[in-house]
Amino acid sequence: MPKKSTQVRWITALGAVALVGVLTYSSMQATRQEYEVCMSFKGSSHCASASGATYDQAVRSAQEIDCELLANGRDENMACLANQPASVRQTKK
Question: Cα-flanking dihedrals φ and ψ of residue 34, to 5°?
Fold first, then answer.
């Protein structure tokens, strides 16, 4: 019987190590690219940096940050997000 419990412990330990590895790898992939995005809305402007796995994800995330700070309420936030960024600059590859 003691042999089985040792096997179960090893299998559990290997599973935990594999899980940590997968989580580390996926979190590193999610932040591969970083961009600084500047948005202009109703005479004000704001620049924010955000990272993502792709260009589109990183830029959209930065736009959302900018528009949250520039807009008043949900309707203005949606209008702000519909605009193109004033500038986009890659800060990290």
Answer: -130, 135
